[in-house]
Amino acid sequence: MLIEVGGKRVIGRKSGRTRRVLLSVLLGVLALVATVCTGASAAAAPQAPAGPVGGGSHLVIVKMVDYRLLQPAFLPPGRYTFRAINDGRAPHALQINGPGVANARTPVVQSGQATDLTVDLRRGLYDFWCPVGNHRQMGMQLNVFVG
Fold first, then answer.
1. Exposed/middle/buried for 142, CB within 10 Å: 0-12, 13-18, 19+?
2. Would the pLDDT of 10 be above 60?
3. DSSP label at 99?
């Protein structure tokens, strides 16, 4: 640090106390940023599969919002019932394609409505998307890894 006193330049050093205060402030800011980031991702993260529902399948909530699918991107193999809830304004549907699943699809769901789709998922990569209009191209698509 360079300090000018009475026309003379004096090189100053931070005291040990100043360093401790700066380090404490820096650590506090980092902790705050980490807390905010963790809270935001936890709030945005969809629920993990719940316990079995009828027929021994696991229930997964899929929130269809205007031009995103909110659901887990990683699942273990098994039988799943995907409850597709339209939380957007536009009509939406859910379609799934992957190992052993050939374009399984829900009917079109209006805003505020829901429907279920039950499929067996094996190990592999599955493509989940909204087949309504150009919703897929607008970002309403998600790759889900099962393994």
1. middle
2. no
3. T
Residue 49 three-state SS: coil
Written as one letter, the residue type at 36 is: V
The span from the CA of 105 to the CA of 108, in Å, is 9
Question: Residues 144, 118: contact at Cβ < 8 Å?
Answer: no
Does the pLDDT at position 31 exceed 90? no
Q: Which residue has the tokens 């090189």?
A: 11
Rounded CA-CA distance 19/25 in Å is 10
pTM of the model: 0.65
Q: What is the DSSP letter of 67?
A: T
Among 13, 132, 121, 19, residue whose Cα is nearest residue 60: 121
Beta strand 141-146 pairing with 74-75: parallel
- Residue 68 token pair: 């995103």
Residues of the chain with pLDDT > 90, as a percent, come to 61
Do 130 and 94 form a contact (C-beta atoms < 8 A)? yes
